C-alpha cells in the first residue's frame, strides 16, 4: 500500500450492517469496513439506517430501512410495498453525491445486490469494484451491460461463484471472505451439535434437525428467522425433545456457543456461494459436517475437521457428525489443529492487503487509463503477503 485510500462502500439493501449480523454478506461488509479503517483508510459506508459506521458520512449515504406492517411477513426475498421505490431514489441520491464529489474518493466498493449502483459505473468519475456474493443475478447483468463503457472490476467470493458468472461473460478475481479470528476463538468443545445461520429454506435447518436425531445428539439452532412460513412449517414443530432454538445471537455469544459444541452441521440445499459459517466454526476448533455444494468444498479445504457428504444425504451427515465429534473428544490436540488451519487461510488482515492492492491498481489505472482491469488483476495477484497460496487472488474469465 503506497498511501491511505478514500473508499466508499455500498452495502446491500434491506438489513443494517450491524450486529447481530443478518447474514454472512452483512457480516463480511461489516468486517471489511472495520478492518480497512483500522489500517488507516478513510472508509465511508452507504447503508440502511441503523447500520454501524454511518457517523461522519454524508446524509445521502443513510438509506431507508424496510418497515413491515406485520413483521411475521418479512422474508429475505421480498420487500414491503413501496420500499424499493424509496430505496432506489435514496440510492440514486447517494450515487449522485459520489459523482459530484468524485475528487474525494479513490474507489467505490459495491456490494449491492441490485443493479442501480453498477448502472452508474460509467459516469461516476470514480473506479468501481463490485463483489459478487451470489449466483448470477439478472439485475446486475443488465446494469453492467447497459453501461456505455463498463467501468466496474468484479470480485467473486469463491471459485465456484466466479465460474457461475463467467458463463455470463463476467470476468472476476477470486477474493474469499475472511473472518475475525480474534473474535472466533478456540473453544473447549462439548457434547451437543450446533447449527447456525439464516433460517431460510435454502439453508436447510430442518435437515440438521433430522441428522441430529439420527445421531442421537442434542442440537442447538441459532440464527435470524428469514422466512417465517418456513420456520413455522419445518422447524418450530420439531423443537423440544433435544432440539433447542436460541434465536439470533451477537457475535461473542454465538462464538461461545459454537466453541462449546461437538460438531457444527452445515446443510445448504442450494449452490452455496461461499459458506462463512464453515470458517467460523472451524476457527473455534469445532469440526464441521456439511453438504458438499457450491463453494463449500473451497472453504472446508483440506481441514482435518471437515467432512463433506452429498447434498441432502441426512444419514451420511449424521454419520460424519458422529465420527467428527468422537474424534475431537478423543484427541485433545485436534481442535487446536483445526483452528490453526483456518487462521492461516481466512485472515481479515491478509484479505484487506489483497483489497488494497486491487483498489490501488484500479485507482492508478483509472487515473492513467493504462492497463486493462484483467491485466491489473494478474499483475497484482501477488500483493497480499501472508495470504495462503490456495486462496491467493486468481482471475476467472469467460
From TrEMBL:
InterPro entries: Glyco_trans_1, Glyco_trans_4-like_N, Glycosyltransferase_grp1. The keyword Metal-binding does not apply. Keywords: Glycosyltransferase, Transferase. Transmembrane segments: none annotated. Residues 191-336 form the Glycosyl transferase family domain. It comes from the Bacteria. This is D-inositol 3-phosphate glycosyltransferase. It comes from Frondihabitans cladoniiphilus. The lineage of its organism: Bacteria, Bacillati, Actinomycetota, Actinomycetes, Micrococcales.
Amino acid at each position: 500500500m503506497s498511501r491511505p485510500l478514500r473508499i466508499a462502500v455500498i452495502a446491500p439493501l434491506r438489513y443494517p450492517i450491524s450486529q447481530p449480523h443478518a447474514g454472512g454478506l452483512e457480516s463480511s461488509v461489516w468486517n471489511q469496513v472495520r478492518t480497512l479503517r483500522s489500517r488507516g483508510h478513510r472508509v465511508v459506508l452507504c447503508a440502511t439506517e441503523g447500520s454501524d459506521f454511518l457517523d461522519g458520512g454524508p446524509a445521502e449515504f443513510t438509506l431507508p430501512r424496510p418497515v413491515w406492517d406485520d413483521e411475521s411477513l418479512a422474508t429475505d426475498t421480498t420487500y414491503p410495498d413501496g420500499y424499493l421505490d424509496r430505496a432506489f431514489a435514496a440510492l440514486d441520491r447517494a450515487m449522485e453525491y459520489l459523482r459530484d464529489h468524485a475528487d474525494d474518493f479513490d474507489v467505490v466498493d459495491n456490494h449491492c445486490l441490485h443493479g442501480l449502483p453498477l448502472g452508474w459505473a460509467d459516469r461516476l468519475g470514480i473506479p468501481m469494484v463490485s463483489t459478487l456474493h451470489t449466483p448470477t443475478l439478472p439485475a446486475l447483468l443488465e446494469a453492467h451491460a447497459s453501461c456505455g463503457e463498463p467501468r466496474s472490476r468484479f470480485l467473486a467470493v469463491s471459485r465456484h461463484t466466479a465460474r457461475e458468472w463467467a458463463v455470463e461473460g463476467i470476468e472476476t478475481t477470486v477474493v474469499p471472505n475472511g473472518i475475525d479470528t480474534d473474535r472466533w476463538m478456540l473453544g473447549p468443545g462439548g457434547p451437543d451439535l450446533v447449527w447456525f445461520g439464516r433460517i431460510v429454506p435454502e439453508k436447510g435447518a430442518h435437515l440438521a434437525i433430522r441428522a441430529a436425531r439420527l445421531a442421537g445428539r442434542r442440537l442447538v439452532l441459532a440464527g435470524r428467522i428469514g422466512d417465517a412460513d418456513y420456520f413455522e412449517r419445518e422447524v418450530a414443530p420439531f423443537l423440544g425433545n433435544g432440539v433447542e432454538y436460541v434465536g439470533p445471537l451477537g457475535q461473542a455469544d454465538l462464538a461461545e456457543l459454537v466453541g462449546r459444541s461437538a460438531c457444527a452441521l452445515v446443510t445448504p440445499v442450494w449452490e452455496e456461494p461461499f459458506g462463512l459459517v464453515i470458517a467460523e466454526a472451524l476457527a473455534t476448533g469445532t469440526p464441521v459436517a456439511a453438504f458438499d455444494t457450491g463453494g463449500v468444498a473451497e472453504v472446508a479445504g483440506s481441514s482435518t475437521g471437515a467432512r463433506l457428504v452429498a447434498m441432502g444425504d441426512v444419514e451420511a451427515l449424521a454419520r460424519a457428525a458422529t465420527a467428527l465429534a468422537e474424534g475431537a473428544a478423543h484427541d485433545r490436540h485436534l481442535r487446536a489443529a483445526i483452528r490453526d488451519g483456518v487462521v492461516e487461510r481466512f485472515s481479515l488482515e491478509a484479505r484487506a492487503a489483497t483489497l488494497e492492492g486491487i483498489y490501488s491498481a484500479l485507482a492508478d489505472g483509472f487515473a492513467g487509463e493504462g492497463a486493462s482491469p484483467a491485466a491489473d488483476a494478474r499483475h497484482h495477484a501477488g500483493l497480499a503477503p501472508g495470504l495462503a497460496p490456495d486462496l491467493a487472488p486468481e482471475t476467472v474469465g469467460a
